[in-house]
Amino acid sequence: MKTFKHIGIVLVVALFAVSCGVHKVKDISLSSVGIAYIVPTSFRSMDAKLMLGINNPAMSFAVQEVTGTIRYEEKPIAHFRTGGIELQGKSEQVYELPCTVTLAEGASLLDVLVIASRRSLQGLKADVDIQGALRKNGVLRAPVKFRDLDISSFSK
Question: Which of 63, 67, 42 minimizes the C-alpha distance to 52?
């Protein structure tokens, strides 16, 4: 169960880092992180609901879907997909974010357990795509892509 919690935390950090980077709003902050539930759906995947406390002093915006890959030392470990989230402007709220994580081809549960046992995010990178999700003046923007995000840099 700790392994799944570590994966969930990595996803939260990646999602929040990406959403803040896209908007370049330095005042948006993550006030709390929690996992409502984790349900293994097979030996290679799980569904989870993350609880994010977000302080958003900026305008309202929506992210419809976030997909990506988590890599450890350049080897793909897992692919993730989240549901949408709409952040209310000028508020601090707790949001529910459903997500699905699937082990990458060639990665095993043992690989994830070894990484989690190190209790460090060092060596973890993410490629993240935000699919046509950001609303500005009622217009959907094109997909936003981030590559080689160093996940450990967001945990400091």
Answer: 63
The CATH number given to whatever domain includes residue 47 is: 2.60.40
The pTM of this model reads 0.69
d(CA 89, CA 87): 6
Separation between Cα atoms, residue 32 and residue 54, nearest integer Å = 7
61 vs 76: CA distance, rounded Å? 30
Q: Which of 125, 106, 126, 110 is nearest to 3 (CA)?
A: 110
Residue type, 145: K
Over the stretch 29-69, which tens digit does the pLDDT of each residue have? Answer: 777 767 788 888 998 999 988 787 888 887 777 778 888 89
Quote the number of domains for the chain.
1
